[in-house]
Amino acid sequence: MTRGDGTKDAPHRAGVLGSPIGHSLSPVLHRAAYAKLGLTGWHYDSHEVDEAALPGFFARVPEWAGDARPGGFSLTMPLKRAVIPLLDEISDTAASVEAVNTVTFGPGARAKGDNTDIPGMVAALAERGVGTVESAAVLGAGATASSAVAALASVCTGPVTAYVRGDARAAEMRGWGERLGVDVRTAPWSRAAEAFGAGLVVATTPAGVADELAGSVPPGPGTLFDVVYDPWPTRLAAAWAARGGRIVGGLDLLVHQAVLQVQLMTGVPQAPLAAMRTAGEAALASRRRGAA
């Protein structure tokens, strides 16, 4: 059953908002889900929207949807926190980290924010055989790092060390730990190579930032969860795999959180994970060929 009038061909518009947005794989994943599910009335596109333009975009949602119904939005940086004041309600999961990556519309066009990054991380780890670990480390700070701490609340039984730049970010990460019930300790980025002694390392930094650490990966490391998906593999992920460690990649996270987004937006009980991953892999392979 789908949202709206419950028919597969009822017109709905959905999309991803962010800046920059040209790199986003979300349209590929969501359109693959619609095709597999036979949701012929659903359409998903991307929109370049920064923080300054976001309130105006939301004010024009009825105009944007036109004759269709607004199906929902995926949100990427820098909008995950900026969107919160524009919403009618947010889920407990999103409120726990003050980060929204999914917006759905209910009766009366009420906008609700949710966060599928957190359960998406847990699902991605579980798929790769990571259930619980005794220690974990987070590289970086920000919205993705706070979501990682929230995910680690159900994965890590011991302390989590966050490696960050600056006292303010360190204090922020410790604050998230207190709020989420996780024993978060902090260390300066200059000591980030020490993270590799943890059973699970979550790299939340943008592409290229952790490349400098690739040469410090020890033999036989634990699990690396690198949230970057393009370019892939990152230098850190390649070094990790070469030394025998287990890898959970950014595409794993992207697909699992998108599966949950499709379910929230359309109301289907199960989105087609395999079809969405295949579409994502094909799109990334095409990009690599184009860049060669």
Tell me about this structure.
- The structure is a single chain.
- By secondary structure, the protein is an alpha/beta fold.
- The chain is 37% helix and 19% strand.
- The chain has helices at residues 26-37, 54-59, 61-65, 92-97, 117-127, 143-152, 167-180, 235-242, 250-266, 273-291, and strands at 12-18, 42-48, 69-75, 89-90, 102-105, 111-114, 136-139, 160-164, 184-188, 200-203, 223-226, 246-248.
- The strands form two sheets. A six-stranded mixed beta sheet has the order 2-1-3-5-6-4. It has a six-stranded parallel beta sheet with strand order 9-8-7-10-11-12, with helices on both faces.
- The radius of gyration is 19 Å and the shape is globular.
- The mean pLDDT is 95.
What is the arithmetic mean of pLDDT?
95
Contiguous helical run count: 10
**Basic shape:** globular
Distance, first to last CA: 43 Å
**What's the helical proportion of residues?**
25-40%
Alpha-carbon Rg, integer = 19 Å
In total, the number of strands is 12
- Proportion in β-strands: 15-25%
Largest sheet geometry = 6 strands, mixed
Please give the order of strands in the largest beta sheet.
Answer: 2-1-3-5-6-4
Order of helices and strands: EHEHHEEHEEHEHEHEEEHEHH
Uncertain ranges: none
**Category by helix and strand content:** alpha/beta
Question: In terms of topology, how is this protein built?
Answer:
Layout: E1 12-18, H1 26-37, E2 42-48, H2 54-59, H3 61-65, E3 69-75, E4 89-90, H4 92-97, E5 102-105, E6 111-114, H5 117-127, E7 136-139, H6 143-152, E8 160-164, H7 167-180, E9 184-188, E10 200-203, E11 223-226, H8 235-242, E12 246-248, H9 250-266, H10 273-291
Parallel strand pairs: 1-2, 1-3, 4-6, 7-8, 7-10, 8-9, 10-11, 11-12
Antiparallel strand pairs: 3-5, 5-6
